[in-house]
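We store sequence, tokenised fold; for instance:
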Amino acid sequence: MSSLPVTLEDVQLAAARIGGAVVHTPCLRSETLSRIAKADIWIKFENLQFTASFKERGALNTLLQLTPDERKRGVIAMSAGNHAQGVAYHAGRLGIPATIVMPSFTPNTKVEHTRGHGARVVLDGDTLAEAATEAHRLAAAEKLVFVHPYDDPRIIAGQGTIALEMLQDVPELDTLAVPVGGGGMIAGCAVAARGLKPDMKVIGVESAGYSAMHQLLAGEPVMVGGDTIAEGIAVRDIGKTPLAIARALVDCVLTVDEVAIERAIALSREKYCSVWHSMRQDIDFTATWTFTDGQGNHSSENQAVLVHDTIPPVITCSAPIVVNAAGPGGVAVPFSVTATDNCSVTSLISVPASGSNFPIGTTTVNSKARDIALPTGNLSTCSFTVHVKSATEQLQDLLVAVTGMGPGKSLASKVQDALDAVRAGNIASACSTLNDFMNEVKAQSGKKLTVAQANSLLTDAARIRAVLGC
């Protein structure tokens, strides 16, 4: 393995580098899937990342290794989805200028979410290949650093931290099943898994219409295309670096047809209490709940009582272990947790005290969720309620935050105007005012506002704009 372009040490260094800035997501046993497969099946909940995807692991690992000159020049990436938001979000956090080239057909919500992280978005090309051509042209013309979505050792090492965490949490794992798009995740996970457990099996999974890695490993010509519900892994070209690693470390790559994928999605939504709820001044959100006892045994996964016809929305579930309530495109929103019956909020590790607020996208328990013991042995008497903050409440919080800052009076005036507009139902005016607010914050960053203050305010404002559907 030492001759491969990415080593176990590279993955371990990536884990140390990105630790604290990305979520160590839980790896939990699924009773339902275990019964179906007649094996112990564990699921890694990477949807709990701030951007709702594993992609930010590799993006951050790459950004943190840029030289001072590269940081100053800025980065550029091509993506229509998760890689774009991972690069944009962490580049914004680190103060690195970011340009994201997206195909012209990219949905406006994804464009706005990417812009909301502070990136410059360029819409160009009718296909991903045409957008990639424009991204490389801009990189050369403007001397920007190109951040590839999967064909880069730094990206691969970052994605490999997924397998590191899984083996830390569940050392007895003997097989990994990894979805394959361009190959970055399976390459990194294979390096980590086989480096720690040489006998571990690593199996890739591709949609039948986009099975490029399966075909390449079998020595067949690559023939891919068509529609697929698994659009996130609908990649035509496998990276050269991931392919080299896969040839050495991946046991096989299986293909799955559309019917099987649709059945899996339906099963996931049914068994993990995924709830979709749309409100103009609140959010579209998903809440994921899992149940366990102190010995790691899962209860029935469909016990949840869901209440979502109130404003703001309220969800009640029995003994939640994992919570994820992301807004449009993975936008984090504040919420508070209160306990009822025989439970207390603090009975679950890392859950804040009742009534406090914290950003969604951060897991609410530590990674070893199977070690958590509930205060009662009766799950039916233990429930938690999540209250998601509305746009109005978030604007009120933002108003408090800007008070006392350098240019506080001017900023507070804009926030108050946006708040008044939302209360009057004038969403367009609120969106415009928040945009003015963000421009002023950017202008004052490093002057009357510290960079940290500015980044915090920009994140809050971008989140509110996304909640409002700006």
In short: The first strand starts at residue 27 and ends at 29.
